[in-house]
Amino acid sequence: MRSSSSSSSKHGAENNRAISGHMITLHKRLYHALNIGFRCCDDKGRKWHCTDIEMQRLVVRSIDAFLDCISSETSQHPLVKDSVVDIVGALEGILQFKNESIMRLASCVAVKMVSVLPCSILQPHILDLVHPLSSLLSSRQLQVPVSCATALSSILSNLTFKSERDVWEILKETNSVVNLVHNIKVFSGADKPIEYFQQMASLLSKILWRWPPSRFCVWADATLLEVLEALSLKPEYSVKVAVLQLYSSLALCGNGAKKLLENGETLLHMMMDSMDSSRPHFLRMEGFKLAQLLAMSEQGSFKMVILCCEPLVKAIICGMSNLSLHSGKLAKDQMILVMEACRLTRIARWAGEHHSYFWKLGVGRVLIDLLLNNFHKIHQSQLNWSLKEQIVMAQEGLNANFLLVLRPYVWDILGWLAANCAQDFDPKMHGDELHINILIICACLAFVESIRSARQIFQNGISNVYGKESASRTVLMMIYSPCKYIGSQARLVLSEVLKPNGKEYIKYFLDTLNATSSGNKLGMPDTCQAVINLISLTCCLGLPQYRKRVTQAQGIETLLAFIRWWLSNPVHIKRLSMAPHWQNPFSERTCCWICGEDWEGEDMLLLFSLWGLAELIHHSGSSKTQEDLFGSQTDYSEAQFVSELQEICSNADTPGPRWYAANILSYFGLYGFPSKLGKRIGKALSENGYTDLELILTSQESVSVHGVILMVRCPSLLPPLKKKPSGASFVSQDTETCKNFITEVHLSAHVDKTGLLKVLEFVYLGYLQAGEDLMKKLKIFARHCNLQSLLQMLCRRRPKWGTPIPSFDLSAALGPAGHRFSDIILEAKSTEVLHWRCDVCSVLAPHMHVHKVILWSSCDYFQALFQSGMQESHSQTIEVPISWEALVKFVPWLYSEELPKPSFGCLWDNLDVEEKLNELQPYVELYWLAEFWLLGDFREDCFRVIISCLDSARYLSIKIIQTAANLCQWKLAEVAANYVAPWYHRLHNSGELDSLDEDLVEMIRAASVRLSQEGSLQTFP
Predict the structure, then answer these.
(1) Residue pLDDT, tens place only, 957-979
(2) Which of 109, 381, 532, 894 is the most exposed place for a label (fewest CB within 10 A)?
């Protein structure tokens, strides 16, 4: 017992020695003041409460004095730790009292507290601080909201994920975002210090960054955006940083980014100026961060390129260059800046004018500087070296392991530039020949190293795999670059570096692919390695000597077996999972972004295996295709293979695999991309109904066609549009022409009927089937008709990386150009549209000018109606039994197979209940109409939209269930009942179900019983 007491005394003495006597005195004074305000509460222990202003002032000053004597050494002392709960409690009570004479001092002390005390000590008390601080953001005292914003910014910077939800609820309750926006809008440099705007903007940025629901009301505030635009013109760097941070936080929302770019000239000018090399490091960083966010989608990148192409590329080049090395290393802040600039080069993924500026501004030299240390000082005379000498020099440079962390960026940037380089690009024009040659050599050496190390994959680990993919992909982009110079130079270098072990590598690739084809599902390391092996094999297939060896080693059969294996066991992997260097810290905080997949999407294994097979087939000669592919096959036929390729062409999610499937199909006489809409419209080609154009050959044979389809798909076959008489009604004149006349078009003597019919087959269906004997005629026809996608497939050209799929979309026929072919009007049964006016005709009711051939092809109901002979079949106006809001969604689907979707994300979330119901109601009508008119695919599309809306707003189900029942859509009613079921008892007791029919209430009750038995009841939101 004595020993324990002695130990305790010794421990206490050590603790006391850690703090000064002055600190102990201040602590006693603090608690002398605090104890006056403590009150006992049954539920929460004691609570600090005192309404006496002088006592509040005494407590605040005591806290202030105590905080002043806390250092980093004493901050973890029990005396400090044990005092925090009482200090926070007192400050909370004083701030909540909101006495104007004490608020300024109390808020300043709060700032001191969050800056002095460690985060670990403050974390348990965060919520007690956030509420009073956020409630004072609306204070009229200048210093109070500044101090509160400063303290809150510090708290949010160190906020744990666990506390985010509770803090957001407090911020909503206190209208923090609204108050901050108001404070920024009333800011004026004349009567408020810059610090005021800085702190308001900083806190608002942090809130927007963490909580996506906060963003809509900010970017949708036009006045605020005008204020920010004006502030961005101020010369102070601190203001520019605050504005850039706010813009970046708003751009985390895809809708917000789109809004910023709508009239973004001023914003982009300020952003470009901020990234200039003459600006401070911290300002440049914020500029690059905003630029990356705005460029997340192809549309955003395109808008930036249109508005500021050269300044954007110049900023990137400057950010990646002018390296200041110390002992062969970059300073940390400069390394971060270079990486941010590299990340912005992702805009090079997409084709555009910016590629020419990259070469013009010397990207080759910059990339060399990131790969090889002191290259230009050491190797000034290298231009006259032989290829072998250049290879040795490049290998020595790579072996120095200079800036290794940047290499994956360099490879990807080089690959994108090569893939989008112009065919006639000449590096000599920009003095870049030496740099490009060395870059090609370095990439090929890294490629060979990736193959060599692949055999030790299991020893080296998964991380080794990820570092190799970028180099392999870059060589692939260079070997098959549309640029003649880059392609030929890459093939020359790769042939040289593969000489020692190229044959062994080919065997290794084929062996691993055969092993995969005979196995089961791949794990992640195996999948990554399989991707690299396929890329590497496809690179080698660009070299004649290795392509021949692969063919002799039954490479066609190997790739065919691999494709069959993948179709049976689809293994999906995204590029980002193999290229972690492109992951950014804000990707998990984004919302409302709809970014298209990369060209390969998640089907990298399928794409590169199809690519390799296409190369082998192309060089083996089309006459040998069937023999090479199926000569030794016993369980797989040409018909099966073609069918599977057509399935890929029609239904694959991403363009790359679809393009290469179509490329292979061209060797089987199939050219184009089958689609559901093309299949529907293709029926009209064999029918003479509703034709308005006669194509007459020199043999006097004729083919009847539909002008509206040619207008969209092949306008070259249309006759020139005659000028309408002055004062005449354009559409009424053309409508009469459509009804009473068939226009004759006399074709050239070079056009024969067989070729014409085949081209029309492509125009109407989106693809055609033809033998080799027609190739010459069809190529001439496609070239004269400007059918570029058809010409590419007829010539069997390799698809260019990134090329989108040619869409079969007739939506343009609904625009002004299609009105002259319109021969019928669709009118809605009901509408609430006011002040309607048609630019085409004088009909007052809301309507759409459409085309009988489209209606006939797309809908069995219209087909039966037009052929019935009834009065309605001859009417120029058809009333559709749906609302106008539903009609304007239905008609575009007929022309494009795409159902217009409601706005989701923050646009949807910020609609009130009635607005959401108005958005959803048309889809319920269309769901009913689709059943009535036998439109199965359309009905499924509508159902998916309805379910998506109900998933995000379950309370709409109460309204939808009655609407569905009124339309006898019992499947939909049951689905809605299942959504309502978890809250049946509450809704029933509150009377909210009284408006429903009894059988619907019973349907909900039965669904509730089922859910209760499954233990799935939830709380009504």
Answers:
(1) 999 999 999 999 999 999 999 99
(2) 381
